[in-house]
Amino acid sequence: MAGETQDKGWLNQLLDEPGVRMIWITNSISAIAGSVMRRFAFSIHFRSLNRRQRVSMWKSTLRRHHAKSGFNSEEINRMAIRYPVSAAIIDLSIRKALETSTPGQAAFKKAVTMNLDAYLTLINDGIKPKSRETIEDNYSLEGLNVGENLPTVMENLKEFDHCLRRSDRHAIRNFNLLFYGPPGAGKSELARFVAGHLERELVVSRASDVISPYVGETEQNISRVFADAEAAEAVLVIDEVDSFLFNRSHAVRSWEISQTNEFLIQMERFQGIPICTTNRFEDLDQASVRRFNFKIGFRCLKPKGNIIFYRKLLSPLTLAPLKKEWREMIENIGDLTPGDFRVVRDRFAIFPQKRVTHGMMVQALQEESRIKKLQEGKKPFGFIQRN
């Protein structure tokens, strides 16, 4: 079909023959000529399975191979998130695992996982893919310093999610979320929590994934990102949204305006849950900000929040109890975000518990706070334009 030199007249004549009944299958239509495509009386586009469909496929495949005991419901859900593969690959992995092990044994799960990892590495040019976006195991909303009532927002999200899942979708409106605040304040982590809470897949798209040096291609990429997320029934997270929704009054080229317009059009048409995050709220286009149902501002932690995140992330790293004097020192450290606690945790998590003390970790948090204050008060380098 896609040959450049071969005459397609014979193919068009074949498709035009009366009484011909044929089913054509292809993995891509990008190279098929338009004169050929318009001769098909009917066509079906098979999209990749979304998370909910993969869960269903796992259950039916295990049942068909009499291997229901191989994975419980929670494990199936994790496998569906971790491995975005087709039904054929799920079936192949289970069949091959059954050749060497019995369902219910650890060896069976290990074999299935090994087969799937090998497949993903194969189609990724021999490079093992990084793990998909996941949330902290002990994550909770407690301790975050946000401007909105998060339980109310989560309740509204749950109701909107029910509307999306109903078959009657004509009455669906937008539910656009904007998370803004300093780096490390918990914006991306809350977005992951939302996806997990709603039992939906998470699709994260960054400016570097979308912006193209060619005129018009960025707009196409924006459209594709929204379309793919809607087909996957996923929560769509747009990181660094200020790259698209900057103040249009400052635009100097027509394509800068067209990119913002395309983004707003796609967000308005999107039948799903888009979450946009930014560290630069003040740079956003004012008309764009009005399109968001909820604008949730993240701030540095309060003293109580410091203690909550310290207990969750840092206390488990040491055997010593958290005494009153350490609690008071932790409460008095300013300008901390959840991200600062993760940085300190990753620094000390490699050591045995007996080697880590509260003093070491408190000092590290104080240093993070000190550096942040230095950055906020730093002077610019280079030439400065004077008014």
How would you describe what is shown here?
This protein is mainly α and 387 residues long. It has four domains: 1-46, no CATH class; 51-123; 150-297, Rossmann fold (3-Layer(aba) Sandwich), CATH 3.40.50; 303-376. Helices cover 47% and strands 6% of the residues. It contains 16 helices and five strands. It has helices spanning 9-16, 34-37, 51-64, 73-82, 87-98, 106-123, 150-165, 187-197, 207-210, 217-231, 254-269, 286-289, 303-314, 324-331, 338-348, 358-376, and strands at 177-180, 202-205, 235-238, 273-278, 294-297. It has a five-stranded parallel sheet, with helices on both faces. The protein is globular and about 90 Å long. Mean pLDDT is 87; it is low at 379-387.
**How many domains comprise the coordinates?**
4
Strand content: 5-15%
Number of helices: 16
Distance between the termini: 64 Å
CATH superfamily of the largest domain: P-loop containing nucleotide triphosphate hydrolases
**Number of DSSP-assigned strands:** 5
The side-by-side strand order for the widest beta sheet comes to 2-3-4-1-5
Assign the CATH architecture of the largest domain.
Answer: 3-Layer(aba) Sandwich
Mean residue pLDDT = 87
Instruction: Could you tell me the CATH topology label of the largest domain.
Output: Rossmann fold
Largest sheet report: 5 strands, parallel
> Fraction of residues in helices?
40-55%
Which shape, going by the Cα principal axes?
A: globular
Q: Give the helix/strand class.
A: mainly alpha
